[in-house]
Amino acid sequence: MIKLVIFDLDGVIVSTDELHYQAWKRIAEQETIPFDRNINNRLRGVSRKESLEIILSYSPKQYTKNQKEVLMEQKNAYYVSSLKDLTSQDILPGVTEVLKELKQRKIKVSIASSSKNARLILKQIGLLDVFDSIVDGNMITHSKPHPEVFQQAAQALKVPCENALVVEDARSGIDGALKANMLAIGIGDAARYDKCHFKILALNELIPILEKISVKQCSRHSLKKGEL
Ligand code: B16
Ligand code: MG
């Protein structure tokens, strides 16, 4: 029985993943480091620090701790400045309808994001007060694929992990959800990842999946990958 749906933020609720990409691209160009959308896919769900390490691994140059700090600050400044134009118009298709439907069904909703800017983004798009719990990059010690962010979201609401379902666009997020013993639904890039329990192209496919799960009264333990 699903009692909680945990949403990733960037790439699931709003397309800030594109803004992260543009900001990192500016940094990579400044430093003449090769960077493209394939490399960018490796940054999904990963913390700012780890993202920078991935980008710098394509450079022959060695960076000091201070230089890395400067690059992270620059990237965040580029990124945060691009967030100022974000409005509720940027909420991805199906999100508002799915959240409403889940509330009606008394299923709790959470955000589990690696981003330290998560609350700012939610405020900009007018969804800050909608979620029952929000766990962001400021609250966790380990970023995805560690399960911590998902476990915290469930613990805050006293929902057992096996009664929670995660919607993620990052492969690292799918791995984290599985480690947390939750059902994992892949959307966007993660919809091409074999480890997800279900793959969806758009968020409006979520409610039919929940209905099938509840009809079968399945839990994470009885539901096999791709069974539905
Ligand atoms: P920030 P999510 C993640 O958010 C992004 O997917 C990832 O690309 C980013 O590096 C990370 O947040 C940290 O973001 O620099 O704003 O703290 O997908 O977990 O919602
Ligand atoms: Mg994401």
Fold blueprint:
Elements: E1 4-7, H1 16-30, H2 37-41, H3 48-56, H4 65-83, H5 95-104, E2 108-112, H6 118-124, E3 133-135, H7 148-155, E4 164-168, H8 171-179, E5 183-186, E6 198-199, H9 206-216
Parallel strand pairs: 1-2, 1-4, 2-3, 4-5, 5-6
The structure holds 1,6-di-O-phosphono-beta-D-glucopyranose and magnesium ion.
Magnesium ion (MG) is lined by residues 8, 10-12, 17, 44-45, 169-170.
What does this structure look like?
The protein is an alpha/beta fold and 228 residues long. It folds into 2 domains: 136 residues, 3-Layer(aba) Sandwich (Rossmann fold), CATH 3.40.50.1000; 67 residues, Putative phosphatase, domain 2 (DNA polymerase, domain 1), CATH 1.10.150. It is built from 9 helices and 6 strands; from the N terminus they run βαααααβαβαβαββα. A 6-stranded parallel beta sheet has the order 3-2-1-4-5-6. It is globular. The chain starts with a strand and ends in a 12-residue tail after the last helix. The mean pLDDT is 93.
Q: What proportion of the residues form beta strands (DSSP E)?
A: 5-15%
Total helical segments? 9
CATH class of the largest domain: Alpha Beta
The beta-strand count equals: 6
Roughly what percent helix?
A: 40-55%
As laid out across the biggest beta sheet, the strand order is: 3-2-1-4-5-6
